[in-house]
Design a protein that fits this description.
Blueprint: E1 3-8, H1 19-29, E2 37-41, H2 48-51, E3 59-64, H3 71-81, E4 83-84, E5 100-105, E6 111-115, H4 124-136, E7 145-151, H5 158-173, E8 179-184, E9 202-207, H6 214-224, E10 238-240, E11 243-247, H7 257-267, H8 273-283, H9 285-290
Parallel strand pairs: 1-2, 1-3, 3-6, 7-8, 7-9, 9-11
Antiparallel strand pairs: 4-5, 5-6, 10-11
GO molecular function, one term: lyase activity
Keywords: Cobalamin biosynthesis, Cobalt, Lyase, Metal-binding
Organism: Halapricum salinum
Length: about 290
């Protein structure tokens, strides 16, 4: 029976950074679909470098809990797992279309199905919409609302913005929200000026980040004007420049993300059909599939 590894960044400074990873692993572990489910981190223990040695399975599916294709998913994780034959060209991706590549771990001999990051999977669009439903407490939210999908953005990696624009485009095509925009922290268009980009009086802001931390709980709320000091908190919705801002916090904390992790493994050949059904019933994903 194969094993599953969920590979995330982690943090030495933010103890809550790894919480979503452990919670999604627990959800999948309860399905019994894998011989073992392991969490692995770059900045915490257990580290990427040791995780394969903790598994008895000869076949392992590795799903990166990252937003975009880039330095960590194309260089750091494959290097630390010691994947023979690996090269980013194996994904044959345009920056958002990586599915998986099958390699061999040079030190353990295990067959590793190395999957694309969860952030660029098509099902992540559903998680963003679910996040909008959660923060507004309205399962039908859309008409009369604008939606901002927010990413970090960096001119050093064009794929960082591609993932955000990919999901904004997919959600816009559904015609559910009056307006959908992709906004960023470190490149234009910037989230600081969020109210300038929408005509709608109500704007849902969903950060495409894996965990809540410095950026989602301090930078973005202050940059948007939800509060002058993040330590005093903010209201939801908060009024900024005559508009109501519904700020959701990191999309990676949404329970439905466990569904996306399984979808990544399924695309790489894992037999997880029953597990997907179980997780969707638990997270409410079944309702989205029926839409």
């Amino acid at each position: 029976m194969p094993a599953l590894v969920i590979a995330a960044h982690g943090s030495h400074l933010n103890p809550d950074s790894s919480t979503p990873t452990f919670e999604h692993a627990d959800t999948i572990r309860e399905t019994g679909a894998f011989d073992a489910v392991r969490e692995a981190f770059w900045k915490e223990e257990p580290h990427f470098r040791e995780v394969l040695r903790t598994l008895d399975s000869d076949e392992v599916f590795v799903v990166p809990l990252f937003v975009s294709e880039g330095y960590f998913t194309e260089e750091v994780i494959p290097r630390e797992l010691r994947l023979e034959e690996w090269g980013p060209e194996l994904w044959d991706s345009d920056g958002t279309s990586a599915t998986h590549a099958t390699c061999t771990a040079s030190d353990t001999g295990q067959t590793v199905h190395y999957c694309g990051p969860v952030g660029t999977h098509r099902a992540m669009s559903d998680v963003i919409v679910r996040r909008a439903e959660s923060v507004t407490d309205d399962p039908d939210v859309g008409a009369g609302f604008g939606l901002a999908v927010v990413g970090h953005g960096t001119e050093r990696n064009e794929n960082s913005a591609k993932a955000i624009e990919y999901h904004a485009d997919r959600i816009r095509e559904r015609d559910r929200f009056d307006e959908v925009r992709a906004l960023f922290m470190d490149e234009d268009p910037e989230v600081d000026d969020v109210t300038d980009f929408f005509e709608s009086d109500d704007i849902v802001v969903v950060p495409l980040f894996i965990a809540d931390g410095y950026h989602t709980q301090e930078d973005i709320p202050e940059d948007m004007g939800l509060t002058e000091d993040y330590r005093t908190g903010w209201e939801t919705p908060a009024e900024v420049d005559g508009k109501r801002i519904w700020y959701s916090g990191a999309v990676g904390t949404e329970p439905l993300l466990a569904d996306v992790i399984l979808e990544r493994a399924a695309d790489a050949g894992a037999d997880v059909e029953d597990a997907l059904e179980m997780v969707r019933k638990r997270t409410g994903g079944a309702a989205l599939i029926e839409q």
